[in-house]
Amino acid sequence: MKRSTINEIMQAADDMIRSYGFKLPPFAYWTPDMFVAQKTQAKALIEARCGWDITDYGDGRFDEMGLFLFTLRNGRLADLQRGGGMCYAEKLLISRQDQLSPMHTHVIKAEDIINRGGATLVVELYGSDDVGSFAEDRGGVVMCDGIARSFAPGEKLKFAPGESLTLMPGDWHAFWGEGGDVLIGEVSTVNDDETDNVFRAPIGRFAEIEEDVAPMHLLVSDYTKWLG
C-alpha cells in the first residue's frame, strides 16, 4: 500500500469515528517525530502495539480485502497466563462496504465484536475440527448479545448497530459491511496480532508499505523501524 493512501485512510477513519461520538486518545495524533521523542515514556504503548493498524493482508486490494483497526489498549500475555492483571484488549475497527476481512480464527483470543454504528455487519461462520482446523462441514454455537445461537457451516449472521457477537478460539469467521461502512468495537482477551491470527488462506497480516510520502502517524507495524 502507498503511504499516501494510508494517510488518507487514517484521516477518513478519524472523521468516521468522531461522527459516532468516539474520540481517539492523544497519542493517536502524535507525529512520527513526537513518537520518537516520547518513546521512553510510551514504552508500554509500543510493547502492547497500541495504535494505528491498516492492512490489505499483503494482497494489494484494500478496497476488496482489508481492514482499518486502532488498538486502544492491550494487556499482557504474562498476566493472562498467570490468571490475573491486565488480561483484556480493546479496538475500534472499520469494515467498509463489501470489504472482506478474510476467514480466520484465534488460538488464544476470545472477542466480542460490536456494531457501534453505520450499516449492517455480516459475519460468516464455520466451526473447527477436533484439532482446531477449519471444518467446512461443521457449525457451532455463538453468543449474540448474551443469547446462545446455533449456526450452520457457512451461515452469515447479520448485526445492526448496537448488536454484538462473542467469538471463542476455534470459531472461524470472516466479516464485511453490508449496505455501507460499519464502525466496529472489539473487546477481547490479550491481543497478539503477530502470532494469534490463523488464516484459512496463506495470506499476511500486515501490509507492505510503499513510502511515496512521509507518514502522518506511525502504524504499529512501523514501531520496530522508527522506535527500535
From TrEMBL:
InterPro entries: D-lyxose_isomer, EcSI_cupin, RmlC-like_jellyroll
Residue intervals passing through the bilayer: none
EC top class, as a word: isomerase
Name this protein carries in UniProt: D-lyxose ketol-isomerase
UniProt similarity note: Belongs to the D-lyxose ketol-isomerase family.
Cofactor: Mn(2+)
EC number: 5.3.1.15
Catalysed reactions, semicolon-separated: D-lyxose = D-xylulose
UniProt organism field: Shimia marina
One of the Pfam families matching this protein, by short name: Lyx_isomer
Gene3D superfamilies, alphabetized: Jelly Rolls
GO molecular-function term, one example from the UniProt record: metal ion binding
Keywords: Carbohydrate metabolism, Isomerase, Manganese, Metal-binding, Sugar transport, Transport
Domain of life: Bacteria
